Amino acid sequence: MDAQLEARIAELAARLRESRRTVAFTGAGISTESGIPDFRGPQGIWKKMRPIELSEFLADPQARREYWRRKIESYPQMRDARPNAGHIALARLHEAGRLQIVITQNIDGLHQKAGLPEDRVIELHGSNAYVACLGCRRRYEWEEVLRFFDAHSAPECPRCDACGGWLKPATISFGQAMPEEATRLAFAEASRAEVMLAIGSSLQVYPAAGVPEQTRRAGGLVAIINNEPTGQDSIAGLLLRGPSGRILTALADRMEQTERLGP
Q1: Which helix (H) or strand (E) covers residue 226, if one does?
Q2: If both were cysteines, with which of 86, 152, 176, 192 could 244 make a disulfide (CB 3.0 to 4.6 Å apart)?
Q3: What residues are paired with 195 via a beta bridge?
Q4: Which residues are catalytic?
Q5: CA 29, 32, 34 angle in degrees (round to 5)?
Q6: What is the pTM of this model?
């Protein structure tokens, strides 16, 4: 690690020690080290295939079948993914009382797997951990849906037993409204944050990308940790360029060394 990055980590650690409320905002980049591909990076998913919008899913049987094909193909990878050093470092900071909330664009559940309590994670783009009805929001487990596909050949897709609505993983698709309560909570937390750690996000997709901007408008510090330039580098009080796992681990280690915090 070069001296300039080490100095910025030390400065960020000092700001965390002073902060009464620190919030993290995470994007796909924090999970690439767990083997989950990002969306907009050089090897991102959308470089290889066009996303299927909600309107297409609802109106076009072929689009619906293709959507489910992709989801079933990628499900084992996400189901079996394990938290990496970045997720674990954030959980350590939370346990030490230095991180209050994680707001995430990710659907992989890795923050919770790393040890963050469910009520400390705000999922802006939903969760791939289960399937939900688009009509009544009834929850279904993946195993139920996979059994449907095992028992039915194409072109059928699953519908809700209760209302007949289409079933879909409980994630937010293009053209689908953000979850109202999660969005409200995210912006409220951003307004209260004295330090916002923006990690592994291109900070280009709105309204989610407006979360760090909200902290800046409220007078807080935005620290951006990312491999590549982002759409909001200009508002950052601190820019830390590099792998999030390495940087966050170094940050948590420094906090423990200086404060003798538990692991």
Answers
A1: strand 221-226
A2: 86
A3: 22, 221
A4: 125
A5: 135
A6: 0.90
CB atoms inside a 10 Å sphere around CB 127 = 18
Domains of the chain (ranges plus CATH)?
1-36+83-125+179-263 (3.40.50.1220), 42-80+127-171 (3.30.1600.10)
| 214-249 per-position pLDDT tens digit | 999 999 999 999 999 999 999 999 999 999 999 999
* Whole-number Å distance between alpha carbons of 184 and 182: 5
Amino acid at 83: P
Q: Which long-range contacts link 54-61 to residues 24+ away (Cβ below 8 Å)?
A: 54/173, 54/174, 54/175, 54/176, 55/175, 57/166, 57/168, 57/173, 58/134, 58/166, 61/155, 61/157
Q: Is 210 exposed, middle or buried (0-12, 13-18, 19+ CB in 10 A)?
A: middle
Report whether 115 contacts 263 (CB < 8 A).
Answer: no
